[in-house]
Automatic annotation (TrEMBL):
InterPro entries: AAA+_ATPase, FtsK/SpoIIIE/SftA, FtsK_dom, P-loop_NTPase
Protein name: FtsK/SpoIIIE domain-containing protein
UniProtKB keywords: ATP-binding, Coiled coil, Membrane, Nucleotide-binding, Transmembrane, Transmembrane helix
Sequence segments annotated as region (Disordered): 105-125, 649-675
Length: 1023
């Protein structure tokens, strides 16, 4: 049979293939040669031997030949049976595949053209997407399948498979309405079939583009409630718009228009005798789509291409194009009760959509003109407010009843931001901050919400200008959800609506303008939004996500919880369909900002005009809430860029419940009281060196370094990052508790640094109390200019000090510019790291910091402490008393008259002259010294002052043992001069580079550092 409508090409699948037929084996021939060969052999043997017994072999030939012939035929039959079995199995697989493809093709066909019973029973609103009537279902029957099977049939089984593949049972049989459809049979059945056709057509065509006309009478009264006639001839369709006409001569003599217009509005008038339409006086250029009902074929008007003859509720025959070809179907029927119910539902949808146009909707609505409160609304159970005007009056949106979350779409210039502002202003007018609060996220710079920023309802404004604030919002919102869960659990409530008035927990409305831009810049916020969308209803947290094109941007798990949908003007019809289920938002003209379509979760879009938050409304919200306390904030402010020492206690003791940091942090054993009293000045000095931001706990806490727990402290950061300030802040804490003597700085000339390290390493301080903190600024460059042996020994002793510090009560706080600039052994000895600003994110992460907290530009003292952001207290060294230093002043060189002096120097003549001016007659030791001088040096008791270079002293090596035992050795120079006279592997005290200093080694004593007297002066030189 021929299909009544061509199949959708997309339903056609890749072709299948018939299995090849099993080849018939050839019949084996009789083996003549195999039979004659034994006979010939037997005769030859008999001729040779003469024995008659030889002739017996002649009989074996025929016997073997016959046996071979029978065995060959048996093997052929076996191969044929095996091939047939395999082919039957492949045929079964082919049949199963054909059946599966038929099932899919059948489902696709019904999805494309739903049955009228599913339309009248469905809860979804009509599609109304077609601009002209399209083919509809007249019944269920057989149609040509799109499944292709290639191959030539070889037997009846193959032909049966091909026939089965070509037939699609249980498929929708379609009719083309443009050429007219007639229904013939018992009048009740014919009307039921015509109703089924009209339901399908009216459910798909746009009421503003296609009109419908039906006769008078109770059978067709429901048609007049449809919106497909609520326009005059000058409506959107114009005079050439298509019209669907139902002709039922048995009902009334003339078909009726669908609205107050006359039958001429449809362009068709019927006759009682023949039901043949005639043109009305005004006429139309387009022929109507006719659905004709008659009891007999002869009563049908001519020109109908499809005729459905109904024999019963489950039996009908379709005649197409007046030929004898016919198709048996089960007709599609819709009862009068079902049609009336569906007509009422469609009429309600049409009324909500105001398909007559925008009549009754103003072009501009001021928020101050709308009611400020809705009767019976309470934030514990409702957030109902009027946000605009629809055809029937003020439009009310309720995030609690219609939500819990909302999606808002709108292209640039559609009035999206103004709508959000009006909605928030309406909420602020209706509910106090104790019941509703706003968190505003504006990725257009923050100006959209500027008029309401000062309202006590606003707990924060996050913009795209501050990346760090957006990341803090992630952790804070997670903490807010946890806190709300804890509050509900404490009172045994499952939902915020169950809380009593005594529980101070306001609903939190999170509004995100330009949601797409936020997700593109901060993808990690997507997971937080999804979490809020899933749990927000019971916790009282509501999302309002606005974007130019939410379709494809908002995750499915988020959009599934956004029952409230608002679409202002959008550019693409698909965006309007995705948001509000209709294309109307794409049809809003560009010169109508604020015009929108809303779906409040019931599948019934409503067109409205969004209100404008005029100055009167915003002022009214400010006045109404002026005396009210601010809403509780879900997070504290970002850390300040500078913190004075006296400001830290106040920042830790904020009245903001979200910032009550000190007590909460103390529970973890990591924070301390804001300060201690300095006994010398009776002044409270902070015991913390900074302020820590803990957005995941919705608080701030004290940054405290406890050496006994944390170990030595290393402060790392680039130049200008506040390293010295951080060390001063740490030193101030130690000084306030233990006094100036507890603090030692590794600073000053390198001789002082060397002496400090030596004394700390050997623990020699006499009766002074032991120091508690060694402060080293710029540890990575502190020893860079030192001689190699001194630098290595200094680092070795520092490392030993740090290893033994716990037992000795000595701790180290150092700073460095380059993390890798500190030797590996020292680097591992630091247990605590204060990471200030680094040049790159990679360098920060290499130092052990959190890359997500890195900023390109940071204030001095801003950094990370234990994985959280910290701001160090601003404690400049000039405002603090200088700490004690272990190093002492370098005494001047003092020579006793008549002493034996041996001076090795790099400038013998100049130094000898200087000694002579100071009253010490010196002899310069040359390579050819006189015998008297050499003799005096060789005697142990001869007073002599000899000056020479390292080479000169080495040349007289025989005198060295006596000199080392009896003379005071003076060394002015470096390591080569020192080792020329002093045979000691121990490094002498380090001299300052370029300073007038020397080493002095008395007989049998240790080497000490002294100041070389200046020319013409015998005064001490201080370090």
């Amino acid at each position: 049979m021929h299909p009544l409508h061509d199949e959708d090409p997309s339903a056609l699948l890749l072709p299948l293939t018939l299995p090849q037929a099993s080849p018939r084996p050839e019949r084996p021939g009789f083996p003549v040669l195999a039979t004659l060969a034994p006979v010939g052999g037997a005769l030859a043997l008999w001729a040779i031997t003469g024995s008659p017994f030889s002739l017996v072999f002649a009989v074996l030939g025929p016997i073997v030949a016959v046996a071979s012939l029978l065995d060959a035929r048996r093997q052929a039959r076996r191969r044929l049976r095996r091939a047939e079995t395999d082919r039957e199995a492949r045929l079964d697989e082919l049949r199963a595949e054909i059946s599966a493809r038929h099932d899919e093709e059948r489902r696709a066909a019904w999805r494309q053209t739903p049955s009228p019973s599913s339309i009248v029973a469905g809860a979804a609103r009509p599609a109304w997407t077609d601009r002209t009537p399209s083919p509809f279902v007249v019944g269920v029957g057989v149609r040509r399948s799109g499944v292709r099977v290639d191959g030539v049939p070889s037997d009846a089984r193959d032909r049966a498979v091909l026939e089965a593949a070509a037939r699609l049972d249980g498929a929708p049989v379609l009719a083309e309405p443009s050429t007219g459809v007639g229904y013939v049979g018992p009048i009740a059945l014919a009307r039921s079939a015509a109703r089924a056709a009209l339901v399908q057509l009216a459910g798909r065509v746009d009421p503003r583009a296609v009109s419908v006309a039906a006769p008078h009478g109770v059978e067709w009264e429901w048609v007049r409630r449809l919106p497909h006639g609520r326009r005059d001839a000058s409506g959107p369709g114009g005079d050439d718009a298509p019209c669907i006409v139902v002709i039922d001569p048995a009902s009334e003599q003339e078909p009726a228009a669908n609205t107050a217009g006359t039958v001429e509005a449809t362009g068709v008038v019927g006759t009682a005798a023949t039901g043949r339409p005639r043109r009305a006086s005004r006429g139309r250029s387009a022929e109507p789509f006719r659905l004709v009902v008659a009891e007999e074929v002869r009563l049908l008007p001519p020109g109908l291409a499809t005729v459905v003859r109904l024999a019963g509720p489950r039996a009908a025959v379709v005649h197409r194009d007046g030929v004898s070809a016919q198709a048996a179907i089960e007709p599609a029927l819709v009862g009068l009760v079902e049609a009336n119910r569906w007509g009422d539902a469609v009429a309600g949808v049409a009324e909500l959509l105001d398909l007559a146009g925008d009549a009754g909707i103003p072009r501009r609505v001021a928020l101050a003109e709308l009611p400020a409160a809705i009767d019976g609304a309470h934030a514990r159970t409702s957030l109902a407010v009027a946000v605009g005007t629809a055809a029937g009056g003020p439009l009310v949106l309720d995030l609690v009843a219609h939500g819990p979350h909302a999606l808002v779409a709108g292209t640039t210039g559609s009035g999206k931001s103004e709508f959000l502002l009006a909605w928030l202003t309406a909420l602020a007018r209706a509910y106090p901050p104790a019941l509703v609060s706003f968190l505003l996220v504006d990725f257009k710079g923050g100006a959209a919400f500027e008029p309401i920023r000062s309202l006590p309802h606003v707990v924060g404004v996050v913009t795209d200008l501050d990346e760090g604030e957006a990341l803090r919002a992630v952790e804070s919102l997670r903490a807010e959800l946890r806190q709300r869960e804890a509050i509900l659990a404490d009172v045994g409530a499952r939902d915020l609506r169950e809380l009593g008035e005594e529980v101070p927990l306001a609903r939190l409305v999170i509004v995100v303008d330009e949601f797409q831009a936020m997700i593109e810049r901060f993808p990690e916020l997507g997971a937080v939004i999804a979490d809020i969308a899933a749990r927000g209803r019971s916790l009282g947290v509501h999302l309002v996500l606005a974007s130019q094109r939410p379709n494809g941007v908002v995750r499915e798990q988020v959009s599934a919880n956004c029952a409230l949908r608002v679409s202002l003007r959008v550019m693409q019809r698909v965006d309007s369909l995705a948001i509000v289920g209709t294309e109307e938002a794409a049809e809003i003209p560009p010169d109508a900002p604020g015009r929108a379509v809303v779906d409040r979760g019931d599948g019934r879009p409503v067109r409205f005009q969004s209100a404008i938050a005029d100055e009167a409304a915003v002022l009214g919200a400010r006045v109404a809430s002026a005396s009210l306390a601010r809403a509780r904030r879900p997070w504290v402010d970002p850390l300040p860029h500078r913190i004075a020492p006296d400001e830290l206690p106040g920042l830790l003791g904020s009245d903001d419940p979200a910032a009550g940091a000190t007590g909460g942090a103390a529970k973890s054993g990591r924070a301390e009281a804001p300060g201690v009293v300095d006994a010398r000045t009776d002044r409270v000095v902070p015991s913390a060196f900074g302020l820590v931001d803990e957005p995941e706990l919705q608080r701030r806490s004290a940054a405290v370094w406890d050496p006994a727990v944390d170990g030595h402290l290393l402060v790392a950061g680039v130049q200008g990052s506040g390293r010295s300030t951080a060390l001063e802040a740490v030193a101030a804490v130690v000084r306030a508790r233990h006094g100036d003597s507890a603090l030692v700085r590794l600073e000053g000339p390198r001789s002082a640094v060397w002496d400090t390290i030596e004394q700390l390493a050997h623990g020699a301080r006499g009766s002074a109390p032991a120091p508690r903190l060694l402060v080293i600024d710029e540890l990575d460059t502190r020893f860079r200019a030192w001689p190699d042996d001194y630098r290595a020994l200094a680092l070795e002793r520092l490392e030993a000090l740090m290893r033994e510090g716990r037992s000795r009560g000595l701790w180290v706080a150092a700073s460095t510019t380059q993390w890798l600039g500190v030797p590996h052994g020292l680097r591992d000895a630091f247990g605590a790291r204060l990471l200030l600003h680094h040049a790159t994110r990679a360098e920060l992460m290499q130092a052990g910091g959190a890359g997500e907290l890195w900023k390109g530009v940071e204030a001095p003292g801003s950094g990370q402490w234990r994985g959280r952001r910290v701001q160090v207290v601003d404690a400049p060294g000039a405002q603090l008393p200088s700490p004690a230093r272990l190093a002492t002043r370098i005494p001047p060189l003092e020579l006793e008259p008549g002493a034996r002096i041996a001076l090795v120097t790099t400038s013998p003549m100049a130094d000898a002259e200087l000694l002579g001016s100071a009253g010490q007659a010196a002899v310069v030791l040359g390579s050819h010294a006189d015998a008297a001088t050499l003799g005096a040096l060789g005697r142990r008791d001869a007073p002599v002052v000899a000056v020479g270079s390292a080479e000169a002293w080495t040349a007289h090596w025989s005198l060295l043992p006596t000199i080392r035992e009896t003379a005071t050795i003076l060394v002015r120079g470096g390591a080569s001069e020192y080792r020329a006279l002093i045979a000691d592997r121990t490094l002498p005290p380090l001299l300052d580079e370029g300073a007038a200093q020397l080493w002095v080694r008395p007989p049998g004593g240790a080497t000490v550092r002294r100041t070389w007297p200046a020319v013409g002066s015998t005064t001490d030189s201080a370090v």
